Structures are given as structure tokens and as C-alpha cells.
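Late entry, evening session. Most of the bench is empty. Finally got around to the prediction I had been postponing all week. Sequence below, unchanged from the version circulated by S.P.
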Amino acid sequence: MQAEWTTADVWVFAAIEGSGPDDGYTLAQIVAKADGINHAILLERELTQAVPRLLAAGLIGADAEADRYWHTEAGRALRQRWIKRGGLFSWGKAMMPALRRMGPPQDGEWRLPAGAFERAVQAHLAWGESMLKRRRS
């Protein structure tokens, strides 16, 4: 059976920003932005399936050891078209057709350093908790 693009693939793409390793997002930033746009915490398996697919499609760059993820030139162009058509919150509606037009995704092996995802989630949750505490005081 042929692989298909998933909502999680689009979600991960939408949560990444930057144009190279120097200004790319950290995993904690991706988790935070993903939560902001979909009101849910990304799962590690969603990320580790999406990243190799997006890499193979030439839409993102990723350096898990350096904790940096960014859009390639092709990814930035795709993001610009999507933003012009509906803005950040149109990610699901606008991006899925664009990925499908690229053909089926290419799955690959890709891993995070041990504990990296859990640390990113915990950093996001701690930030959220600190924001709540500040608002209460």
C-alpha cells in the first residue's frame, strides 16, 4: 500500500520556521507552535514520521543533534503561497492539497536523540505554567 500524506505531516511543516540552521526552530519551539495552531501537543511518532517525509520532499532541513529545523527554499515558497491564501490557521485546508500534488510521501528512518522530544514537551509545558502563574499574580 502506498504511503499518503497525513495531517501530522502538514502540522509539523506548519510549526517549523526559519531559513537555515542558524535561524531554524528548536524542537521546543516546534512543539509550542504546533500546540498554538492545533491546540494539542504533537506526539513524538507524528514528528518522527513527518520529518523524514518533509526532508525527502525537499521542504525542510533538519539537524536533530544541533536541535534545529528550518524550511528550505522550496519549503519557504510553499509556505508563502499557503500564507497568502489563508494565513497561519489555514494550514490544514491549504497545505494538504499542496503536499498531495507533490506525489506520495517517501518514508525514511529518522531519529531524535534520546529524551529530546520529552525535554521539548516539558519545556513547553513549563513555559505555559509560568505564563499562567504570571497572569494569576
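Two things to note before I forget:
The first helix runs from residue 7 to 15.
DSSP finds six helices and two strands in the chain.
Will write this up properly tomorrow.
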